[in-house]
Amino acid sequence: MAKIIIDSQEVECRDGVTALQAAIEAGWDIPHYCYHPGLSVVASCRLCLMEMKMPHPQTKEMGWAPKLLPSCQTPVRDGMEIRFHTDKVKKNQEDCMEFFLLNHPLDCPVCDQAGECYLQDYSYKFGKAESRMVDQKIKNPKKDIGPHTLLYQDRCVLCTRCVRFAQEVSGTHELCIVNRGSRAEIDVFPGIPLDNPLQGNVVDICPVGCLLDKDFLFQRRVWELKRGESICPGCARGCAISIDHADEKVYRLKPRYNPEVNDWWMCDEGRFGFAYVHDNKRITSPLVRRGKEPSTPNWQDLPAVVRYRFEQFVGEQGGEKVVAVLSPFMANEEAWLLARFIRDVAPQASLAIGPVPFEGEDQNFPAGASGDDIKFTILKEKAPNRRGIESLLESLGGSVLTFEQFVEKTNAGDVKAAWVVGGYPKPWIDKDTAKIANKFDLLVTQDIFEYKFTDAADIVLQACAWTEREGSFTNADGLTQPFHWAIAPPDGVRRDGQYLFEMAGETGLYRAAQVREMMTDSVPTLSQLHEAQARPVHAH
Amino acid sequence: MASFESVLLRNRGVEGSTTLKVYESRGGYQAVRKALKQTPEEIVEEVKKANLRGRGGAGFPAGVKWGFLPKDRKKTLLCVNGDESEPPTFCNRVLMEHDPHQMIEGTIIAAYAVQAQTVYIYLRGEFHEQFHIMQKAVDQAYAAGYLGEKIFGSDFSVHMYLHRGAGAYVCGEETGLIESLEGKRGWPRIKPPFPAIEGAFRLPTVVNNVETLSCVPHIIERGAEWFTGIGPSHSSGPKLFCISGPVNRPGCYEGAMDITVRDLIEREDMGAGMVDGKQVKAVFPGGCSMGILTADELDMKLDFDDPRNFGLLGLGTAAAVVIPHDMDMRIVLRNMARFYGTESCGQCTQCREGTAWMHKIATRIAADAGRLEDLDILLETARNMGMMPGLSICGLPDGATFPIETIVKKFRSELETSISAQPSGRVEDLLKVLN
Predict the structure, then answer these.
(1) Residues of chain B with pLDDT under 70
(2) Cβ atoms of A10 and A23 closer than 8 Å
(3) B291 in A contact zone (CB under 8 Å)
(4) CA of B434: which chain A residue's CA is closest?
(5) Phi and psi for A242 in degrees, rounded to 5?
(6) Of A99, A118, A139, which to mutate for an interface test with B (greatest number of B Cβ within 10 Å)?
(7) What is the enclosing helix (H) or strand (E) of A433?
(8) Half-sphere exposure of B192 (CA within 13 A, CB side)
(9) Best residue in B185, B334, B348 for a mutation probing chain A (most A CBs within 10 Å)
(10) Which helix (H) or strand (E) segment is A322 a member of?
C-alpha cells in the first residue's frame, strides 16, 4: 500500500500500479486512449499527462517539474505528489482533443460508436467547442479488414490498442501501422485479413468508431440498448459477458471484466454465436400427445398433467424404469428442480447427464503460448455446465447413469419413462440415439428445437435460450457464476425455471437466488456463488 | 585561427584514403593498439577528461554516456548512428566516404571501452555508395585481423555489422534507431528504460554518432589535454561544419568551435563568401531543426552553448544553410513545415497532427492565401508540441517547432506584409474550394 498525494488529497493505492491507475481508482476522471490495462504501455496518446513534484537537478529541492509526464507510464512511489487539476494539464487535454479532431469527419450521426465514443465524451468533458483548422481534412476510405470487422480510418486516433491486441493477446499479428506521420493508418497485410478467433475484441477496445463490428453495423443506436449481465454458454470456460438488447431482441454480446476467467476478452464463437436465440424454428408452445390427437395444454394445467402421467406410469411399471436426462446446458437451479420433481414422483428414478459436445482441441492465446503466458483459452468442451450437473448428480446420489448407459438400458427395455432435456444450440441427437426415440411408454422432452425425440414425445416442453433464463453455471475451473435473463422468451413460451419450479411443487415466481437457498442442504457446493474479486475496472 | 591543423579530415583528398593500406601508412590503427594495452576504465576516463561531447546534435558527453552502463552487465552492444538525415547535414557522409577506417578504429576503441563484442553500424537507407565503401573497409579490417576474434593479438574480440535503414528521419533518434535495427517500425521508445540499461534486443546499448567516434582515436593517441586545447573549454575538439546555399565554396570543413557563423560563410578556407549579387537574409546554422538566424545574428559562435542565446535549440549538427536576400520567407516556412510534416513518425498525437497542420497552414500561406491569425496558430501549435514541455516521446517535434517558431518570430513583419499584399478574396476562394 503506497500513499500518494493527488491534487493535494492523500490517496492510498495498491502496490505496483501506475499514477494513472491510482488516480482512476481513486475517482479521478483522466482521459486516456492508448492505455488499456490488458495491454502494454506505449504512452503515445499524450492525453493522460500530469504534473509531478521532483527534486531540482541542482538544488535537490522538491518542486513541480516543468515538464508534463505521462501518468500511464509513471509507477507510484510512496509519498509521490502529482496533480491533474491545473491549467497546464487542462490546456494539454484541450489541445490534444483539438489535434485528434483535426481530420475527424464528425460523422457521429451515421457512426455506430456514437453514444459510447470516447472522442465524443472527451471532447465534451475536456475539449474545445471549435476547431481552428480551416484546411482540407485528410480523407481515408473505409476498409474491410476481416470477416467481422470494418475499419474507418478517418475516425482513428492511432492509439494502437488493436495492433497491440493482435500482437500481445491473440498473438496473430495481423494488424500493423502503415505510412508515417498524419498519414499513418491501421491496416492488414495484403491478402491476410484480420481473421482470428478473438478478433471481435479489437472492436471492444477501440475507444472510437474506427473499428466496427459488421454484425452490429447500423443495427441500433447504442443508447437504446439495455445491458444484461450474463455468462457465455459457448464453452466450459464461462466468460463473463453482457447481453446488449432492446425490444426483446439481442443485438450484441460484449465481454465483462472478470480477472479470474476472461479478463477483458471473449472469443468470436461466443460473441457471434447467439443467432439461434432468434431462430423462427424454435418450439413456441407445449404439446401433449394422447392417442393420436395432439393438444396444447394451458400453462396452469401443465404441471398437473405431467405429474399425473408420471404417477400413472410409476403405478403401472414401477419407479426403477424412470430416468431424467439433465443437459449440460441447464442451470444448476433448473437441474436441481427437475431432479427434485423426478425423485418426488419416483424415488428410485435414475438421473443421467446428457451428451457433452466436444470440438477440436483447446485453443490457447497468444497463439503458441504455454503456462503463465496464456492470456485466453477457448475450451474444446462446448457446454457451459457439465461440472455443475456432475456435482449435482454426485450430491444427490441414488442411481446415476451415463448417457451411454441410458441409451443401452433403453435398448434393453429397462427404461420406459424418460424426461430428456436438450437446450443445445446445435442438433445434438446422433443416429444411434435417435433409434431409441420410440422405445418409451412415456417420453417428456424439453428442448429449443424439434428433433427425433420431440417428434416421438408424449409431452413436448420448450426450453429457453440462456438469454431468457436465470441461474448459475459452474465452469471448468469449478467456479459457479450467476447469469440473469436479458430478454423475454418468444410469445407463448414459459421460462424453464418457472414450470420446473411449479412442477417441483412450489408456487409463485421462479427466482434463482431463492432456489439456491433451497439447495443449500442437498448441494452445498453449488449454492455458493463465485464472487469476482472486487478489483476496479479501468478499461473502456 | 589559421593555425588549426586538420584532424578528422586529414586524409580527405589523399589518393586511396578509403583503403587500409593508405590509412595505416598515415599512422592509422596505432591508437587502437595503444588502447588495447590500457584497461577499458582508463579509456572511459580519458574520453571523459577530454569532454568529448556528442556530435549528433544534443552534445551529450560521450564518456558520461558510457558510464551509464550497468556494472554487472553480461553483454553490451555498440550502435553507430550513421542515419544522418538532418537537412543540409553531410559531415558523417564525408567521414565515411573519405576515411572509413578512422571511424572503424574509433569504433573498435569505443567497443573495447564499453566491452561490447558486437557493433552495429546503422546507415541511413539512402547511403548506397557509402554502404559499399564502409563494407569494403570492414572486410579489409576483418582480413587484417583488426576485427573478429582476439584482435591485434589481444584477448578482446569484436564483430562489426552494417545495417541500412529504410530512410526515415526519426530513425536517427537513438531509440528509433534501435527499433529499426531490430527490424521493427522506427518508432522511438518510451524512456525509461534508457538504452544503456535496456536497448537493442533488450541488452545494454550505447549509441554514438559517426563523428563522435571518429574523434576517439585522436584522443587516445594524443591525449585528452591536446583535445581540450582545441577551441573553447566547454566545446573542445575538432568539429566538422557543413555549409550550403549560395556561397562560393559549399562543402564540409573542419575547425575548432570558436568560429562564428559569419566565419563559416566568409572565410576563404570555408564558404568563401556569397556568390555574386546575393546577400545573406537568414541562416539555419545547425541543421534546420535548431532554428533560424537573421542577417544581424551572424556573430553567433558555433559552439554548444552560444546558439541558445539566439533563441535556437542548440548547436545541432553545425550544418549551415544560407538563405539569400531574394528568397521569400513563406517558401522557406513551407519547406520546413513540409519536411517535418512528412517525417513525423506518427506515434505521439501532438507531433503527428501538429506537424501536418503546420504544413497545411504554411502551404496555404505560400500559396498567397494566408490569414494573419495563421501566424498565431503556427506559434501556438509550435508551443503545443515537443519533448521539452513533456508532450512527446522523442525530440523530433522540438526540432520541428524551432524552425517554424523562429521563422515566424524573427520574420513576422515580412510574413505579415506578404499576407497583407495578397489579392483580396483569395483566402475566401481557396477555403471555399477546400471545404
Answers:
(1) 1-3, 435
(2) no
(3) no
(4) A136
(5) -120, 145
(6) A99
(7) helix A431-435
(8) 7
(9) B348
(10) strand A322-326
The 10s digit of each residue's pLDDT in B312-356 is: 999 999 999 999 999 999 999 999 999 999 999 999 999 999 999
Q: What share of chain A is helix, strand, coil (3-state, %, to 5)?
A: 30, 20, 50
Report whether B207 contacts B178 (CB < 8 A): yes
CA-nearest of B195, B203, B196 to B175 is B195
In angstroms, how far is the first alpha carbon of chain A from the final one? 25
Chains A and B form CB pairs within 8 A to the count of 101
3-class DSSP state of B32: helix
B353/A102 Cβ within 8 A: yes
Q: What is the pLDDT of residues B357-373, one digit of tens each?
A: 999 999 999 999 999 99
Nearest to B100 by CA among B208, B214, B207, B14: B214
Classify residue A142 as left (phi > 0), alpha (psi -120 to 50) or beta: beta
Residues from chain A that touch B339, judged by Cβ atoms under 8 A, are: none
Give the chain B residue nearest A157 (alpha carbons). B349
A38 DSSP 8-state letter: T
| CA gap B356, A180 in Å, rounded | 11
Helices (H) and strands (E) in chain A, counts: 15, 26
CB contact, 8 Å: B185 with chain A?
Answer: yes
Q: What's the rounded Cα separation, in Å, for the pair B181 and B77?
A: 12
Local structure of residue B290 (DSSP, 8 states): G
* SS3 state at A437: helix
- Nearest in space to A180 (alpha carbons), one of B167, B177, B81, B127: B167
DSSP A336-388: HHHHHHHHHH-TT-EEEEPPPPB-S--EEETTT--GGG--EEE-SB--S-HHH
8 A C-beta contact, residue A23 and residue A30: yes
User: What is d(CA B343, CA B217) in angstroms, rounded to the nearest whole number?
Assistant: 34
- B window 255-274, beta carbon within 8 A of A: none
What is the ipTM for the molecules in this complex? Answer: 0.92
Among A89, A38, A48, smallest CA distance to A72 is for: A48
Q: Quick check: B94 and B11 in contact, CB under 8 A?
A: no
Rounded-to-integer distance, Cα B326 and Cα A533, Å: 72
- Is there a contact between B435 and A96 if contact means CB atoms under 8 Å apart? no
Strands (E), A366-479: 376-378, 400-401, 417-421, 442-447, 459-462, 471-474
Helices (H) and strands (E) in chain B, counts: 17, 9
- Angle (deg, nearest 10), helices B372-383 and B349-366: 160
d(C-alpha B118, C-alpha B113), whole Å: 13
Max alpha carbon distance in chain B (Å)? 78
Distance CA B263, CA B273 (A): 9
Please name the residue that has the C-alpha cell 471532447. A123
pLDDT exceeds cutoff 60 at A535: no
Residue type, A515: V
Residue partners of B156: CB distance under 8 A and separation at least 6: B36, B112, B150
Helix (H) or strand (E) holding A124: helix A118-126
Q: At what angle do helices B210-222 and B91-98 cross, to 10 degrees?
A: 60
Kindly report the pTM of this predicted structure: 0.93
What's the pLDDT at A533? 59
Three-class DSSP category at A252:
strand
Burial degree of A297 (CB within 10 A; 0-12, 13-18, 19+): middle
Rounded to the nearest angstrom, the minimum Cα separation between B359 and chain A is 10
Tell if the CB–CB gap between A180 and B355 is shorter than 8 Å. no
Cβ of B349 and A181 within 8 Å?
no
Tell me whether residues A70 and B190 touch, CB distance under 8 A: yes
Rg (CA), chain A: 28
Q: Grid coordinates in use for A221? A: 443506436
What whole-number distance in Å separates Cα of residue B311 and Cα of residue B409?
10
CB B411 within 8 A of CB B282: yes
